[in-house]
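stuck on this fold:
=====
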Amino acid sequence: MEDVTDPSFRYLCKMYGAQMMYTEFISADGLIRDGKKSLAKLTLFDYERPIGIQIYGHQIEPMVEAALMAEAAKPDLIDINFGCPVKKIANRGAGSGMMKDVPLMVEMTRRIVEAVKLPVTVKTRLGWDNDHKNIVEIAERLQDVGIKALTIHGRTRAQMYTGQADWTLIGEVKNNPRITIPIIGNGDIDSGEKADEAFNKYGVDGIMIGRATYGRPWIFREIRHYLDTGEKLAQPSVQERVELAKLHIKKSIEFKDTRRGIYEIRRHLCNYFKGLPDFKSTRMKLVTQTTPEELFSTLDFIAEKWGYCDMSNEIPLSLSHEV
């Protein structure tokens, strides 16, 4: 979710009921070398709480130093990313690449737990590949060195984001009598029904939603409503999406600057309107215009031209995107 869950997008997710959020993951090497982009990701806001800072790296000492720098930014917890499958991360031994060296993963976690005063949590996957689904062992060993919660994505690193997430092993970890820490399930949760199944069938303590938020930050409101009532909420209308896009633009510019705020929000804007007919030329405007005035004019045009469209049968947006 790098370059997706920035402060402006987190603002929207919180507005729609996200109960816990994380920063974009931050490179340990970037932090300790005073990388401008990495340091910027440490900026937190009180309304975001509770919020965790997520770090990744492949060497113990830089990770410990990065954890201390993250702690100084005063998040509610430090999260270690042992789950990112992206080639440039995993092939260096960071992210899910750490699953090929479980002793190093455990030792790194132990050192970070000992170094910081905040709770430390971990996110990881089922294993490196189909022949090495060792999450049960990993969960026990990480718990033994002091983590306070574990998030498990129901795929191996080799799967990347293909196929369906396998929740059976997530349930096995949760129901392991040795496990006492909260287990959070992740993978393919894009509806209230799937969230309900995660809790009732697999017994997890919480769910984490990543790619399904992409272009759809209101998913938190949908899921909370379904869990509370058993009923589905209607999808936002075109007009509601237009107003949301305008707010997102304003917040992106507020947290960054006009040029960068507009450039970095482009990945979001079109996804708010995915499924509208004959949208190609308008989509091109949303990803090429360079001023707020131009974008707001295009958004008003969308509301006027497609305001009649029924978005209630919208297909979940995000699970085909690898972000």
